[in-house]
Design a protein that fits this description.
The chain is α+β, with helices and mostly antiparallel strands and 175 residues long. It has five helices and seven strands; from the N terminus they run αββββαααβββα. Strands 1, 2, 3, 4, 5, 6 and 7 form a seven-stranded mixed sheet that branches. Helix 2 runs antiparallel to helix 3. It is globular, with a radius of gyration of 17 Å. The relative contact order is 0.25.
Length: 175
Amino acid sequence: MDMEEAKPVPRVGVVVFVLKGKSVLLGRRRSSIGASTFALPGGHLEFGLSLTHTQLYWLNQNIFGSLALIKYLSGAGESFEECGARELKEETGLEMGKAEYITVTNNLFLEQPKPAHYVTIFLRAVLADPDQLPQNLEPDKCDGWEWYEWDKDKLPQPLFWPLDQMVRSGFNPFP
Ligand SMILES: CC(C)CCOP(=O)(O)OP(=O)(O)O
Ligand SMILES: [Mg+2]
Ligand SMILES: [Mg+2]
Ligand SMILES: [Mg+2]
């Protein structure tokens, strides 16, 4: 394997501050990066549309004709909002309502099992249905989702360290 292949490359994550009253949704991670720390729902920005090939084929055959295919092939990639909504749905079953970009961080994770470098896009959003309850749809990656008041003395510990740095800096995700 040549050195080019071995070199890790930065990846893009999109995470969502789901706001409910004074609280945000957090889950204790089980996956490789930040295992056992409390983090926001979210995940990797994916190449191209957040449609599966099957969905795309169906759309192509039944509704948009070549429109969907052109968008996919033109590389009109997954938007930050599409990624946030997809990841939130995949991980918690929750439908994302109005969302907006609030900040970005550039983090190197050297002490993890594998070194990683993430540019993380932070969105804030409300739920499409404020009464919808979160489910833990990926128990292999998360211990479960709970609402926590965004108050440095009331948040669970330990927080995923980029989030911990935001709390310590007095970051306020609320409008
Ligand atoms: C580390 C983080 C900022 C980006 C990746 O998040 P994640 O490990 O939750 O990714 P997935 O939800 O896509 O598995
Ligand atoms: Mg995910
Ligand atoms: Mg993902
Ligand atoms: Mg995730």
